[in-house]
Amino acid sequence: MSLRDRLGSREWHDTWDVVVIGGGATGLGTAVEAASRGLRTLLLERGDFAQGTSSRSTKLVHGGVRYLEQMNLALVTDALRERGAMLRNAPHLVHKLDFVVPIYSYAAMPYYGIGLKMYDWLSGRFSLGPSKWLSAAETAERLPTVRREGLKGGVLYRDGQFDDARYATALARTFEDLGGVALNYVEVTGLIQRGGKIEGITAVELESSERFDVSASVVINATGVFAEEIFQMDPAKQEVSLALSQGSHLVLTKDFLPGTSALMIPKTEDGRVLFAIPWHEHLVVGTTDEPVRQNSREPRATLEERSFLARHVAQYLGREVTAHDVLSVWAGLRPLLRRGNAATSKLSRDHQVLRSPSGLITITGGKWTTYRKMGEDTISFAVRAAGLRAAPSHTRDAVYGSDLPAVQALAAEYSELAGSLHPLLPYRKSEIVWAARHEHARTTEDVLARRTRALFLNAAAAIDAAPEVSRLLARELGRDEEWRRRDLNKFLNVAAGYKFAG
Ligand SMILES: Cc1cc2nc3c(=O)[nH]c(=O)nc-3n(C[C@H](O)[C@H](O)[C@H](O)COP(=O)(O)OP(=O)(O)OC[C@H]3O[C@@H](n4cnc5c(N)ncnc54)[C@H](O)[C@@H]3O)c2cc1C
């Protein structure tokens, strides 16, 4: 399928105001900001949207209780304000969640209680409700399986939760509604420069191997942990380095922690916080913070991380985790700006916008919750640096629509698509067709990992459902049997890594 076929009716310009490299939270947020300010914007992603770190987060829309301990109040306040904007702008994609911190020592109670009161206070008018003390009985009522021995009480606070990859898909659609062009499976391979200034990019469309050049007033590097690959293409090399830190998660059946509250473990063996969070009727446990040297597109939880997570579940929920209990395992890499020799868990999640002498703008660091602010800061910076004419920012008050009625209409239209995909997965076949037609799904992995979250919820069930997904997808995309088999095998290889013993 050629680039022209994929563009369909979308408008293509010879010269763009802005080209964004990278279709994760940061790139999509930046692209939405640019398009909403009237800039002609192209976004290129070499894999699928949110295939990198942005589909592998802990799914929290939060100020970050742990950054309170680092006394990074500006980061927490900014993130709490953004949490408020996400809840208001996309109420079908983000919701409030109760978190309970169980406390086993009277001496620790004031520390956590006051810390969370400070979190309330920093939320200001964006507060999701006040935190409160719980007795031991109330704590156990909210966390029915929590270890009771020595339990003195708890603290309840509220934060936000979301589905990261679904949010990214909504951003891509919002961007296109604003007139932008977003292409997945297109890799930026070089920066075009004249007289020491960057004036565009070279790229390859990976499905057709078609190469093309694009001119742009501004090129923005939003490639997360891969930012240094783009620095290498820049003639004016930058002396900026990233520290990579891996975070892993286990997904367990919900009976490990029934109810609707999440558990927050305030101090793990390595002095961090850890969550056990209800998500899509499953329980997500995470995350770790392991410095890694090697970058990877498909990072894997190490054996140490797997046993660290399982150990804390056993310690707090009083039940050993067996391989049979773990439905999926996933890991992501954090792009953190390196400062001195600080350990990665101490490095700030603050974002930073950088400009190289040749004009390449890079946005790095930050967190999912602050994606919109990162986009706003980047585009405001780019507008000033390149002298672009742009409207003021208004993404803080944007609204992202819901496609649910349209997906249901599709199922009603074709009875074959009304059926469930798999008894253990909450998806219908119509969602596959919808993902291919309207959400840029190009592979079985796109559908099972990010348009639906099947692979993240239950790897074995996703593997069972894969042949049917690849059949429907091949039909939608007009692909032959050879493509279908190759695509299916590729998915099965990736999916094997999401099994606990994989
Ligand atoms: C384990 C973990 C848990 C987290 N939990 C939370 C949380 O609960 N809440 C929260 O707010 N934040 C959380 N974060 C942080 C958040 O997930 C990240 O800050 C965010 O997803 C980073 O997004 P990004 O777009 O910068 O990077 P990415 O999502 O990695 O996107 C970069 C993209 O660039 C693409 N790319 C690279 N090179 C090229 C090229 N040459 N051409 C085209 N495309 C290219 C890649 O394919 C990739 O898709 C977590 C992070 C981790 C690691």
Q: What is the 3D form?
A: globular
Number of domains: 3
Helix/strand class: alpha+beta
Helix content: 25-40%
CATH class division of the largest domain = Alpha Beta
Uncertain residue ranges:
none
User: Helix count?
Assistant: 16
Report the mean per-residue pLDDT as an integer: 92
Write the CATH fold name of the largest domain.
FAD/NAD(P)-binding domain
How would you characterize the overall build of this protein?
- By secondary structure, the chain is of the alpha+beta class.
- The chain folds into three domains: 3-53 and 166-240 and 347-397, FAD/NAD(P)-binding domain (3-Layer(bba) Sandwich), CATH 3.50.50.60; 93-161 and 243-335, D-Amino Acid Oxidase, Chain A, domain 2 (2-Layer Sandwich), CATH 3.30.9.10; 404-496, Alpha-glycerophosphate oxidase, cap domain (Helicase, Ruva Protein, domain 3, Orthogonal Bundle).
- The protein is 36% helix and 26% strand.
- It has helices at 3-7, 25-36, 65-69, 73-89, 109-123, 136-142, 164-177, 227-233, 303-317, 371-386, 404-413, 430-438, 444-451, 454-457, 459-477, 481-496; strands at 15-21, 41-44, 60-61, 94-103, 132-135, 153-162, 181-183, 186-194, 197-205, 210-221, 242-253, 262-265, 274-279, 282-286, 290-292, 326-337, 351-355, 361-365, 420-422, 425-428.
- Bound molecules: flavin-adenine dinucleotide (FAD).
